[in-house]
Amino acid sequence: MTSTIVERTSVPDALLQPTEPGRRDLLVLNDVTKRFPNGREALRDVDLVIPEGDFVFLVGPSGAGKSTLMKLIIRDELATSGEVYLDGENLARLPRRRVPHVRRKIGTVFQDFKLLPTKTVRENVAFALEVTGTPRGRIGPAVERALRHVGLSQQAEQFPRQLSGGEQQRTAIARALVHDPRLVIADEPTGNLDPLISWEIIQLLLRINELGVTVLMATHDADIVTALRKRVVALEEGRVIRDELGGGYHRRG
Amino acid sequence: MIGFLAFSVSRAWQGFWRNVAMSLAATATMTLMLLLLAGFFIVQNGLLAALSFVEQKVEVEADLRDTATAVEIADLEGRIEALPEVREVTYISKEEALRRFQEARAAQGEEDLTRYLDSNPLHASLQVKLRDPTDFGTVMDLLRADPAVERVKNITDLVDRVVTVTDFLRTAGLAILAVIGAIVLFIIINTIRLAVVGRAEEIEVMRLVGASDAFIRWPFVFEGALVGLLGAVITLATIAAMAEPLGAFMFDFFRVLPIRVGAIARDVSLLVLGSGLGLGIAGAWISVRTYLIR
Predict the structure, then answer these.
(1) How far does chain B reach from its first CA to its final CA, in angstroms?
(2) In Å, how far are B38, B176, B236, B243, B260 from B265, measured between CA atoms?
(3) How far from each other are the two terminal CA atoms of chain A, in whole angstroms?
(4) What pLDDT was estimated at residue A8?
(5) How many CA atoms lie within 13 A of B101 on its CB side?
(6) Residue A82 in contact with residue A30, Cβ under 8 Å?
(7) Per the CB 3.0–4.6 Å rule, which of A214, A215, A218, B206 could disulfide with B211?
């Protein structure tokens, strides 16, 4: 298996030069720095281009800036300097009322699932459509499809506490998918799961990726990253220290 | 729009019943606070009524000459009555004055001395009640200048003393009402904030899946309104239930006061409903705002 090291400095104006002809760049970070009010720099001069359809691992020790990067992508935070483009839109220039619409292009999956305990699996997934004003008639079929996709049609009427960790995470993934997102960002989705279940979740994310959805997954799981040989972006102290195709969890050599 | 409203109201209803302990705690706090507010409002009203009752006792009294004719007196009475600051003019005839004097003596258990008199020494008089007891200047000047008037009682000192006391009590009552209002405001807003914070998880999920601000805010605002309305209704029901026995108990007190029960019932209902709804909505609005897009 070949691997190419992409020199960070060789990324010119990311917007003007698509990575490959015929493929659009879904996510572009251009010289992004995030400094918090307390002076801490969570991200420093980050350049990152993710073409539509990619599967990217984001690795690095705790506090390296992975979560901050994710927050910038869903525009929970704004970059201090530099630009973040999602599907061609500059998030810093986005009017407030457009923010929810951009978020609907993204599906989010977290380590702690973030399921609502008082709702069943079906209600948790439907919730994402109800609160975004989807007409009632469209909600039912979309929820069925998402549940079938993650293999939870049988458990639709159960509550999260009745499910295993893996099933809970699959519910969360169904909820992330129910909008037909362009991008799925997963922040340590296997962090609370044992290795076997972790593999199940990864297989699910890979299948989603094969359907054309771009996936950005932050993880500590070296085995998974090394085994899959996907694109790996490594962060350390807020900087991108490595961005290679087909990379392992650790730097080679 | 209809769909959005239906969504918000049904979510508010669900939210209320799915966290029923929290919702009832908020409603109970709301009820207690509104009772406190309404109770003090009623006391304040009683106080104000008592104060104007005292102030109404202050009147300008002018003794009329025995030579004044009925026409002169009627003319003077008409001119005084036409003044904007005058509430009421009463004519007391010589005979009426004598009767009142005799009654007052009798009430004090004193001997009736008037029977030793062969003529009535008392004067007929005009008693002028004012809208505002401090507004006696024009009335007194007009009375003094009139030839039918023999003497006008000087009430300047009395008015000064009465007004000093009533003004102080009015200001104190208003200050206490304001303080209680502020306490009620903070406690209610805080209670609703707690209920909203308890649902932070739900709000976070809504934000993540791309719910617009309106979809996040309005269900909570309707829920706040529901808590406010429920609290207000319970409060009014409690007050209505207590009004009868309490009213009977206080009857003698209220009877002497120029108090209009109908007007107070309306004011209290408006105050309780308005504060309940307003504080419920404001509390929810303020609490949710923290979670919306920055």
Answers:
(1) 25
(2) 10, 21, 10, 10, 9
(3) 16
(4) 43
(5) 16
(6) yes
(7) B206
Contact B231, B280 (CB under 8 A): yes
pLDDT over threshold 60, residue A11: no
Query: Can you list the alpha helix ranges (DSSP code H) found in B57-93?
Result: 70-81
Q: Give the up-direction half-sphere exposure of residue B165: CA atoms within 13 A in the CB hemisphere.
A: 11
CB crowding B165-176: b at 16 or more within 10 Å, else e? ebeeebeebeee
The one-letter code for the residue type at A247 is: G
Whole-model pTM: value is 0.73
Measured between beta carbons, the chain B residues lying within 8 angstroms of A108 are 208-209
In this prediction, residue A42 carries a pLDDT of 93
ipTM of the complex in this document: 0.84
Task: Describe the crossing of helices A165-177 and A121-130 by its angle, rounded to 10 degrees.
Answer: 20
- Could you tell me which residues are beta bridge partners of residue A89? A86
What is d(CA B261, CA B264) in angstroms, rounded to the nearest whole number?
5
Contact A127 B209 (CB under 8 A): yes
**Rounded (5°) CA angle A124-A127-A128:** 105
Instruction: Tell me if B146 sits within 8 A of B75, measured CB to CB.
Output: no
Nearest CA-CA distance, residue B179 and chain A, Å: 37
Name the percent of chain B lying above pLDDT 90: 18
Phi-psi map region of A163: left, alpha, beta (phi>0 left; psi -120 to 50 alpha): beta
With contacts defined as CB-CB under 8 Å, which chain A residues touch B209? 103-104, 108, 127-128, 131-132, 175, 179
- pLDDT of residue B253 exceeding 90, the answer is no
Q: Are the CB atoms for B140 and B130 separated by under 8 Å?
A: no
Largest CA distance in chain A: 56
User: What one-character DSSP code corresponds to residue A20?
Assistant: S
Residue B245 pLDDT exceeds 80? no
| Token pair belonging to A227 | 């085994």
Alpha-carbon distance of B150 to B143, in angstroms, equals 9
Kindly report the number of other CB atoms within 10 A of residue A44's CB atom. Answer: 17
Q: Report helix, strand or coil for A58.
A: strand
Q: Which residues pair with B85 in a beta bridge?
A: none
- For the record, the structure tokens of B53 come out as 């009752």
Helix (H, G, I), strand (E, B) or coil at B194: helix
SS3 category, A243: strand
Angstroms from B211 CA to nearest CA on chain A: 5
| Encoded tokens for A160 | 């999260």
